[in-house]
Each structure stands twice: as structure tokens, then as C-alpha cells.
Design a protein that fits this description.
This protein has 306 residues and is of the alpha/beta class. The protein is globular and about 55 Å long. The relative contact order is 0.16. α3 packs across α4. It binds phosphoric acid mono(formamide)ester (CP). The site of phosphoric acid mono(formamide)ester has 8 residues, from α2. Keywords: Pyrimidine biosynthesis, Transferase. GO terms for molecular function: amino acid binding; aspartate carbamoyltransferase activity. It catalyses: carbamoyl phosphate + L-aspartate = N-carbamoyl-L-aspartate + phosphate + H(+).
Amino acid sequence: GRHLVDPRDLQLTELDALFSLAEQIQKNQSHYRDLCRGQILATLFFEPSTRTRLSFEAAMLRLGGSCLGFAEPSSSSVAKGESLADTIRTVAAYADLIVMRNPKEGAALLASRYSSVPVVNAGDGGHHHPTQTLTDLLTIRQLRGTTEGLTIGFCGDLRFGRTVHSLAETLARYKNNKMVFISPPELRIPDYIKTGALAKNQIEYRETDRLEAVMGDLDVLYMTRVQRERFFNEEDYVRLKDFYILDNEKLKTAKKDLIILHPLPRVNEIAIEVDADPRAVYFAQAKYGMYVRMALIASLLGVASC
Ligand code: CP
């Protein structure tokens, strides 16, 4: 079957087809309300989630399908020591599509090898989160009109932030994008992204720890949370957690048509006062996530040509 484990599993033409379908669905939802009738989506979440799990479930329900799963691994037989491989083989017999989040890098790839139905990676540790990238790109396409020729600033925890890894690799495949990576030295973007997708696509990029110094250059600012759950010790987290706090003062030098994205959840890195700025689009972004997941489900189940 077809899986979405890594953003590279989708060609650019397939990505753009998914965005077109998501836009059609958003415009004319009632037309799609029975598309997945009789089909079942399983959501297996071994880590907490609000948006990813609930937007996948809302997406399936709005397509007329049904959902089952667990949001708390302690309620599954994993708590009794069952392996991921056995869990996946079991659930694949009950559901038509599996969406899984797991704290281990590579868990989604392993699951895809044992599953007879499509597996979607809803986040594997600090590695990748491809459906967040679909969400982010649809937001950029809708609100900037293009996913090419942009200067994108990624700010915060670029080391452990899986949404950054997936989005930077994918934006690198579109034409003429430039990137600025803004982080404390300890939380820089991993080398495999720089020597991989960025080098391969000859992306012009800079690394800095000063958000204010680059603010005026940015078309898109992608803020991220410091990923407490991936730190080895609490002391380092406490030292780094408030390194960046975006507020109205820092936005004074920003472009008028900047858009501010954040995969959410936000902890403290964007001041609440910024929510009222029309450039703050992170709640719209969360809504686009549901439409693009509707398009993805339809595509993976083979009920929409995409
Ligand atoms: N953006 C995102 O993955 O949010 P959740 O952790 O709430 O699913």
C-alpha cells in the first residue's frame, strides 16, 4: 500500500494536487460528505496531541467515515508489553488507514513495513511530521499565493522540532526559496538537513541567533516551541525555553505582508498580544490542517484522484 512516512514520499505534483483538492473540499464540503462512508480510520497516539489527532478524526468524520483508536498508550495492550509490529498487524485488520504518532524516530517507517493498509506518520520523535508540512504549505499557498520565491525564517528549537525538519526539506524542493534559521547555538537545525535537502537543492540559507536582525527580510516567520520532552535534562530546557518571545515590539521592523505561522501548541514563544495582529495566522493554519487531511485521507483510500 501507499504510506506517508516522510515528506519525500510525495512528489511536488502530488503535493500540489492535494492542495487543490483541499481547496475544493473547503469550498464545497457537502459534496464530499459521503466520500469515505464505510471506511475506518485508526488513530494510534503514543504521545499527546490536540490538533493532529482531532483534525484527522474530524476530517474522517466529515468525509462520512468512522474513527477508532487510542490517545493514551496505557489503555492499549502496549502497556502489557506488546510490540509495535504486533499492534500494527492487529489494527490493520480492523481499519482502512492508520495514523500514528510515536516518540521514537523511525517508528512510522517500521509500522509501514508491517501494515497491510496505508500508514501516516503523525510525528516520529524529533524526526518528521509530514502532515504538519501539508498544513503549513497549504497555509502559505492560501495566504501568500505561492510556495515559491519566499524568504522563510524558522525560529526556536530547530534541533528537536520535527515540523521544522519536514517543512524545510519540502520548501527546499520548491523554486527560489531562501531560508533563515534562527536559534540558540545548542538548538541549530541538524546537519542532515543542511547536507541533504538544502545542499541538493542549492538553497541559500543563513543561521543566526538574533531574530530582530533578520525580521525585516522575512516573508514567512515559522515560530516553534522548545521541545521539552526531547531534552536530556530540565536545566537546559529552563535555560533555553524563553530564548525567543515574539511580541509587538519585535514585529515593528517586519514586512506588512509577513505571515506568522506556528504549528502549535504555543507555550510562551508568542506573546498573546500578537494574536490580534492580522499577520498572525496560526489559528487559521490549524483549520487548514483539517482540509488538507481530508484530501490526504481521500487520496490514500483511493476515493479521490490526486
Ligand atoms: N501541530 C501539532 O502537531 O499539534 P498537536 O501536537 O496538538 O497534534
